[in-house]
UniProtKB/TrEMBL annotation:
AB hydrolase-1 domain location: 156-265
Taxonomic superkingdom: Eukaryota
A Pfam family of this chain: Abhydrolase_1
Protein name: Probable lysophospholipase BODYGUARD 4
Matches recorded under InterPro entries: AB_hydrolase_1 (IPR000073), AB_hydrolase_fold (IPR029058)
Keywords: Membrane, Transmembrane, Transmembrane helix
Gene: LOC103701145
Cited Gene3D superfamilies: alpha/beta hydrolase
TM region(s), chain numbering: 20-46
Length: 435
C-alpha cells in the first residue's frame, strides 16, 4: 500500500469488531468441528441400528477421485467439497475407516425409503407411490390460444432457489401478472428435485444433471416446449443457465435474480463457492446458519432432525406465538426438504457445478440469448460481485442493481414493479424477434 491514511475512530472500531468476530469465529468453528466429529459416531451407530445398511457419510474418505472407478469418465462427478471440507479433528487423523468410495450411489437405500431422521408427514411423502417420478408443477394456461402478435403463445419457466419452492413465484409474480401477460403467456413454476412437493429420493446425488433431467421430464418434454423464457432466483440461476446451454435455440430470454457465480477458470471453483457463500463466520447470523448447514454434515442433519422432522409442531408453535392463521411461505418452505436432498444440492449444484458455469455462459453468449441480471445491493447471501463478474462474461446482458434490496426483498415487497420488469423482458424479446 503506497499511503497510510490516518484511521478515524469509527473505522478503528469497525476494524476492531471485525477482528473480534474473526477470532471468535475461529474458536466457535473449532468447537463445531469437534461436535460434528462426535455426531458422526452417533449417527453411524443409530443409522446402523435403525437402517441396517445406511447411507455412509463423507467424513473419512480423503481419496477423492482415484478410488472411484464409476466416477472415471463421467462428466459430472460429485463435488470435491463433499470430501474435501476442512475439519480440525479429521485432519489430525485420529480414526479412519472406509467411506463411500467405490460404492454405487446410495447402495442399501431404495428410492423411496425414508430415513429415520426425516419427516414422514403426509405432505412430506406425498411424492411417494406415484407411478412416475415427476416434479411438482404449477401451470397457468394463457387465456387465449394465440397471442397478441398472432403466433401461438410463449411459455415461461420459473426456477426457485435453495430452500425455497414454487410458492416463491405463486405468491409474488403470478398474482401480479398483467392482463396482457395472462392472455399471452403460459407460466410454469416447478418445485426443484428434493424441495417443496417434489420427489426427494435417497439414492440420488442431486447433481446438476439430475436436476436438469427432472425439469426436462416434467416440463420441457411433456409440454413439448420449443420456445420458452427462463426466470430464476439464486441457485435456480445455475440450473437455468445449464438448461439454456442445453436448449440454446429454444430459450428466448433468461432473467437471473441474484445469481451465485464465481469464475470457474479458478482451480477449486467449488471450494471458492463454499468459502464465499458459506464463510465460516459467526456474524451476520444468516451467514452463520448457512456455514453450519454447509460445512457440517452431521450438525446439519441434527438441525434438520430437530426442525424439519418436526416442522408441523414448530409451525403450530409459531402460529400460536405470532397469533396468525397462516405462516409466510418463506418460513414453511425452509423445511420442505430432507437433509439428504438439501446437503447434496448445496454441494453438487451450488459448489460442484460452479466449474461448469463458464461453459454454459459461453454458449448463452455465443447464441446471443437475451439475459437480464437483477440483484439487490444489500444482498447478504450472494455477494454483489457475482452479478458484476457474470456481466463481464456476458457483455450483452443487462444488469440492474436494486437499491436497498436484499436477497429476497429484491422481489418480495416490490412484487408489482418486479413483475412489470419481467413482462418487459418477455415482450421485448418477442418484438425484437418480429421486427
Ligand atoms: C401483488 O402481489 C402481492 C404479494 O402477493 C399482493 O399482496 C398484491 O395484492 C399483488 N398485487 C396485485 C395487483 O394483485
Amino acid at each position: 500500500m503506497p499511503t497510510f491514511p490516518r484511521v478515524s475512530p469509527g473505522r478503528w472500531r469497525e476494524r476492531a469488531s471485525r477482528g473480534l468476530i474473526s477470532a471468535l469465529s475461529l474458536l466457535v468453528f473449532a468447537f463445531l468441528d469437534l461436535v460434528d466429529f462426535v455426531l458422526c459416531f452417533f449417527f453411524r451407530f443409530v443409522d446402523g441400528v435403525l437402517e441396517g445398511n445406511p447411507i455412509p457419510c463423507y467424513c473419512w474418505n480423503r481419496r477423492e477421485k482415484q478410488g472411484s472407478p464409476d466416477g472415471v469418465g463421467e462428466e459430472e462427478e460429485v463435488s470435491e467439497t463433499l470430501y474435501g471440507r476442512r475439519n480440525l479433528f479429521r485432519e489430525i487423523g485420529l480414526v479412519s475407516y472406509g467411506g463411500r468410495s467405490g460404492e454405487k450411489e446410495g447402495k442399501g437405500a431404495s428410492r423411496s425409503t425414508r430415513r429415520w431422521s426425516d419427516c414422514g408427514c403426509e405432505s412430506c411423502i406425498s411424492w411417494q407411490g406415484k407411478e412416475e417420478e415427476k416434479l411438482y408443477l404449477m401451470v397457468r394456461e394463457p387465456s387465449q390460444a394465440r397471442n397478441h402478435w398472432g403466433n401461438s403463445f410463449e411459455s415461461v419457466i420459473f426456477l426457485h432457489g435453495f430452500l425455497s419452492s414454487s410458492s416463491l413465484w405463486l405468491e409474488t409474480v403470478f398474482p401480479n401478472l398483467s392482463e396482457v401477460a395472462k392472455h399471452n403467456f403460459r407460466v410454469f413454476a416447478v418445485d426443484l428435485l428434493g424441495f417443496g412437493g417434489s420427489p426427494k429420493p435417497t439414492n440420488c446425488m442431486y447433481r446438476l444433471k439430475e436436476h436438469l433431467e427432472m425439469i426436462e421430464k416434467s416440463v420441457v418434454k411433456p409440454f413439448q416446449l420449443s420456445s420458452f423464457h427462463l426466470v430464476a432466483h439464486s441457485m435456480g440461476c445455475i440450473i437455468a443457465l445449464a438448461l439454456a446451454a442445453k436448449y440454446p435455440e429454444s430459450v428466448k430470454s433468461i432473467t437471473l435474480i441474484a445469481p451465485p457465480y464465481f469464475s470457474s477458470t479458478e482451480v477449486r471453483a467449488s471450494h471458492t463457492a463454499l468459502n464465499r457463500l458459506a464463510e465460516r463466520k459467526i456474524w451476520p447470523p444468516l451467514l452463520f446458519g448457512s456455514a453450519i448447514m454447509s460445512w457440517y454434515e452431521h450438525l446439519g442433519r441434527t438441525v434438520c432432525f430437530i426442525y424439519c422432522r418436526n416442522h408441523a409442531m414448530w409451525e403450530w408453535i409459531l402460529k400460536l406465538l405470532t397469533w396468525r392463521r397462516d405462516l409466510n411461505f418463506m418460513i414453511t418452505d425452509l423445511t420442505k426438504h430432507t437433509h439428504h436432498s438439501a446437503w447434496h444440492t448445496m454441494h453438487n449444484v451450488i459448489c460442484g457445478a460452479m466449474k461448469l458455469m463458464d461453459k454454459h455462459l459461453e454458449v448463452v453468449n455465443e447464441v446471443g440469448i437475451s439475459v437480464k441480471i437483477i440483484q439487490g445491493d444489500r444482498d447478504q447471501v450472494v455477494p454483489l460481485e457475482c452479478s458484476y463478474s457474470m456481466k463481464s462474461k456476458l457483455p450483452l446482458a443487462d444488469l440492474k442493481i436494486i437499491a436497498n434490496a436484499d436477497h429476497n426483498t429484491v422481489m418480495v415487497g416490490r412484487e408489482k414493479d418486479f413483475t412489470r420488469e419481467l413482462e418487459q423482458i418477455w415482450f421485448t424479446s418477442i418484438e425484437s424477434k418480429l421486427s
